[in-house]
Amino acid sequence: MQDILIEVFCGVSVEDMCGTQRHPVNEVKLAEEVVGYNKSLHWYSNSPDFVLSIRRLAREKGVQIKFYLDGVCHEDDVEPIFEDFNKALTYWDEDPSVEPAEKIGAFQDKSGRWYILPLNLMDSFNKDKEDEDFVDGGGFEGKYGQYADEEYLREKLGDFLYEKIKQP
Fold first, then answer.
1. Separation of first and last alpha carbons in the chain
2. Is the dihedral of CA 57, 60, 62, 67 positive or negative?
3. DSSP H or E segment with residue 69
4. Which residue ranges does the chain devote to CATH 3.40.50?
5. At what angle do helices 48-61 and 24-36 cross, to 10 degrees?
6. Which residues in 50-89 are b (16+ Cβ under 10 Å) and which e?
7. pTM of the model as a whole
8. Closest to 84 in 3D by CA, of 99, 97, 74, 98
């Protein structure tokens, strides 16, 4: 079977050519069937199960195989194919229409006043709240007061949580 070449085309650009979605076990069986044809051919699939199975079977049978992702040949390397498949795992993180959530934390100063701060300010907040000269001189309020403002807290926490921590 050394003269046989199976070329598997994957990616968004071949979506229309892939046919119907099958159960993963049936994708494995299909890969066995394709290798069993014992002839060179082109195949279209966006199934991770098919891609891994056909690569394994081709290697076992000594059949040459090439994978293409949106028209770019990657020889028998499936890593770029799976990087593309795995985009689904981070789709919501990368979708430009979905704003990433700002990482924030809730912190209290020595008087018990609550602040909702971006986490990158946590270390300086904790250091500055211990500096009595900075606090007494108004520097602390000037630097962090905006993070304890009622409107800001309601925006970050929502009304329900704000009511639970609001200042006396």
1. 81
2. positive
3. strand 64-69
4. 5-94
5. 30
6. bbbbbbebbeeeebbbbbbbeeeeeeeebebbeeebeeee
7. 0.52
8. 74
Provide CB contacts within 8 A for 10, sequence distance 6+.
44, 45, 46, 51, 67, 68, 69, 70, 81, 84, 85
The CATH class, in words, for 5-94 is alpha beta
Query: Which amino acid appears at position 37 of this protein?
Result: Y
Paired tokens of 45: 């699939």
From first to last of its 168 residues, the chain has per-residue pLDDT tens of 568 888 888 887 777 787 777 888 889 999 999 999 999 999 999 999 999 999 999 999 999 999 999 889 999 999 999 999 888 877 766 555 555 556 777 778 888 888 888 888 888 888 998 999 988 999 998 898 888 877 777 777 777 676 766 654
